[in-house]
Amino acid sequence: MTRGIALTMLLVSCVGCGVPDSEVPAAAQKIFRERCFGCHGADGQKRGGFASILDTNALLDAEVIVAGDADSSVLIEEVESGSMPKTGDSLTTGQISILRRWINGGMQAAASG
Question: Has this prediction a pTM greater than 0.70?
Answer without folding.
Answer: yes
